[in-house]
Specification:
444 residues, Ribosomal Protein L25, Chain P, 23% strand, disordered N terminus
């Protein structure tokens, strides 16, 4: 779901998902096939750089300044020497964290985390933990206790879990949210940006079927004659390459807002009558993600104070022609489906919750596991549950915090950039069990 990285939500500054489809993509719900009842889209006109006259847009990121954080002093990390180049948490070096009962966990924070943990339990029990830390059976007792727990939520975590530090514990957290932009189901004047569903000519290939060395790697493309070629990029799609190949699930009013919604992976479309259509990630074209913020920063287009999402959007609006060209340098394109149930959905297939869920690298944090962040800003500090992944969220203790929907969520996520310490909460006994397999720390 997540592909932010870099400076705050302007993780647009970092490189993200690649043409090789990450293994965790398989955990997303299967794409919805094109709806036969919906007519094939007409060839869209070139995407406008500004909303059409007369269309009233919701508040935009450019209009909502990033929230200024309340500073905090992180707790000290446990002394440790991480193993350089480790590919998983089990190989990175593990040390015991502080007793959970000593961590500053607020009661409401613990209650939200307990609810998210209970929701994640079916996935924890059946998924293979890519971090190498746990087995499904390790979570069985804690999950059974959570289902019947009626007491103090912080007490639950203190009773059933131990804190474990991966490597040196140094954490970096950004933020994401569920955006709301102007959009409608059926095309009308001023709503000319198509929101595409999955194309019928997009093919995903499991390269592991051809070579053991490529096991776990996938690519996406299309067939052109007798050749398998890369799928259409953003420019080709905006110029009508999907005509007759993909349903249009909705129409948006503002191409810049739609671009940012694609980066988020899900969002809400609100029409002039107040009707809301929720859309979620269905797939991606397999092209490399390019963070436009990094391009803009490297080219000297963003000055001091402009590297937040809000600053990037403001520049794009002030320079419509150059902005359109820069957005097209990001060849990655996301396809959507309408969501009718709870959501947005994270990589585990469960709804993520604001102020509770985070995206993390499953090679270092088991999906479904709780974790405690002690950061240099108060809003990022607390108990979270890893329920999502992201193309730019890679490596030990790299976290993307989810803030929900609405203006407050947008303002927090837009400026989220926090550093501190992360401790995983794992079933008691985990550290002792994996400790024997812990790699020796090399001497300097």
């Amino acid at each position: 779901m997540r592909i932010w990285g870099g400076l705050a939500l302007a993780g647009l500054l970092g490189a993200c998902s690649s043409g090789i489809v990450p293994p965790e993509t398989a955990s997303r719900p299967a794409p919805v096939p094109p709806a036969p009842a919906r007519p094939a889209p007409t060839r869209p006109q070139p995407v406008p750089s500004r909303p059409q006259p007369g269309v009233v847009l919701p508040e935009t990121p450019a209009n909502l300044p990033a929230r200024q954080p309340t500073g905090a002093t992180p707790l000290p990390a446990m002394p440790a020497t991480p193993v350089a180049g480790a590919a998983t948490a089990a190989a990175a070096g593990l040390v015991a964290g502080p007793p959970i009962e000593t961590l500053p966990i607020a009661a409401d924070n613990a209650q939200r985390a307990l609810a998210a943990f209970k929701l994640s339990c079916p996935g924890l029990l059946r998924r293979t933990d890519a971090s190498g830390l746990t087995r499904g059976s390790d979570w069985a007792d804690a999950c059974a206790a959570a289902a019947a727990w009626s007491g103090d939520a912080k007490g639950f975590f203190a009773q059933w879990f131990e804190a474990v530090q991966v490597g040196d514990g140094a954490a970096f957290a950004t933020g994401y949210y569920e955006p709301e932009i102007a959009g409608v189901r059926e095309r009308r004047a001023g709503y000319d940006v198509p929101v595409y569903g999955m194309p019928d000519n997009l093919i995903e290939v499991d390269l592991g079927q051809f070579s053991e060395a490529l096991k776990g790697k996938r690519i996406r493309g299309r067939v052109d004659g007798r050749q398998f070629v890369p799928y259409y990029d953003r420019t080709q799609i905006e110029q009508g390459a999907l005509e007759g190949h993909a349903p249009v699930v909705a129409w948006a009013a503002d191409p810049i807002e739609m671009f940012f919604l694609q980066v988020q992976g899900s969002g809400r479309l609100k029409g002039p009558d107040g009707q809301v259509v929720r859309i979620g990630y269905a797939g991606q074209n397999g092209r490399d993600y390019t963070g436009i913020g990094k391009l803009m920063k490297d080219r000297g287009l963003l000055g001091p104070g402009q590297t937040s999402m809000q600053g990037i959007v403001a520049w794009l609006r002030e320079h419509p022609d150059e902005g359109r060209a820069i957005m097209r340098e990001n060849k990655s394109f996301v396809f959507f489906k309408e969501l009718t149930g709870a959501g947005p959905l994270g990589a585990m297939g469960y709804p993520v919750a604001g102020w509770t869920s985070v995206a993390a690298d499953p090679k270092f944090i088991p999906l479904g596991a709780p974790l405690f962040l002690s950061m240099d800003r108060t809003d990022a500090t607390g108990l979270w549950v890893a329920q999502d992944t992201g193309g730019a969220i890679k490596g030990p203790n790299r976290i993307d915090t989810f803030w929900g929907a609405g203006d407050d969520a947008r303002a927090i996520a837009g400026g989220m950039s926090a550093r501190g310490v992360a401790w995983l909460l794992l079933p008691k006994g985990t550290l002792a069990r994996v400790g024997a397999a812990k790699p020796a720390i090399p001497q300097p």
